[in-house]
Automatic annotation (TrEMBL):
Superkingdom of this protein's organism: Bacteria
UniProt entry keywords in alphabetical sequence: Pyridoxal phosphate
Protein name in the entry: Glutamate-1-semialdehyde 2,1-aminomutase
MF annotations from Gene Ontology: pyridoxal phosphate binding; transaminase activity
Pfam families recorded: Aminotran_3
Cofactor dependence: pyridoxal 5'-phosphate
Coiled coil: none
UniProt family annotation: Belongs to the class-III pyridoxal-phosphate-dependent aminotransferase family.
Record organism: Nonomuraea wenchangensis
Amino acid sequence: MAGTSDAALRERARRVIPGGMYGHQRAGLFPENFPQYLSHGEGALIRDVDGREFVDLLCGYGPIVLGYQHPGVEAAAAAQRRQADCQNAPSARMVELAELLVDVVDHADWAYLAKNGTDATTTCLTIARAATGRSVVLVARGSYHGAAPWCTPGLAGVLPSDRAALRYFEYNDHASLRAAVDEAGDDLAGIIVTPFKHNDGEDQELVDPAFARELRQVCDSRNAVLILDDVRCGFRLNFGGSWESLGIQPDLSAWGKAVSNGYTVSAILGIEALRDAATSIFSTGTYWFAAVPMAAAIATINAIRDEDGIAAMERAGELLRSGIVEQARANDLAISYTGPAQMPYFRFLADTDFERMMHFSRVALDHGVYIHPRHNWFVSVAHTDEIVARALAGTEAAFRAVRDRFGDG
Ligand code: PMP
């Protein structure tokens, strides 16, 4: 892509940003035609710095739940910005947002607000340890809980001691959970788990309700803390905690992403019995009290409810799923398409190293659809039937291209 604005920015970035870009936003993880830099987002559409427009099926990795530039959210943020954002102390928006979260999420008796999902998951562990006076936390192998030393998937610079008090189990596997619980012995502080299994590059797996019940029982019988990491799924699957429909309440939950339609707020929600522990810890940040993102979060949560947002996303996701599954069938290509409709993931069964998926993503992008080759996708309320049809026109071309290059199967 020599000669493009994107290429020029990459060249400048190489001089002043480590590796040119870090983390999962590195364009190097995508096919070579993907942009590194984006300039605009509106509804379900994004534009790169060279003016190419795409239907977005990644939604900023989840935050964009109502669509980019949602008028109600932007108006609330703008009104707050005219008053104040970052100050010596929080604004009234903090109390209003905490009240709203406590009202909407069943298990929540209090809310502790932060910035990133990693702040939320890490603070949950700290609260669990403060409450129990114990150290060991159980984590499902391969689950992403953020980029702090205890959970980052990159091990450079991470000390064994950062993870010494973690034990691992396999998601949905009772025997491995019991083994990890036994290993923790009387030092079990808590268990952190995502609402369903959404490990990168793997088929997604809904939680087995019996497994979720066992997690609850283990925590009850050992006086340990059950932490639901709802950072990715929160406000996409349910209007409330993602396990409300199962009737299983965590003791703590971590939230981020969809809470504020792209503004920077995350939250830790907890039960009454953990209020004192949450009061006892010191976890904070310069920007954690900024009022604009909180105003945006209040408007976002109200809009998800008022616009029946969960149902709208489910409908868009179902349309996408049936279209993609039919296109794969028509091209004689075997795929697995997994996860809730709003957060799908698909891969080609014949792929050994994502080679078909990389080609699929490359061609989809050339046909105006931005998808991720190995991370689950997201749809938003702005993914109307017309937008989904546009996305499917791109994926149709991508399926044909995969078949042409790799054959059927
Ligand atoms: N938990 C889960 C389940 C996530 O998906 C993520 C982000 N992808 C995080 C925690 C960390 O959130 P953040 O990137 O905002 O720190």
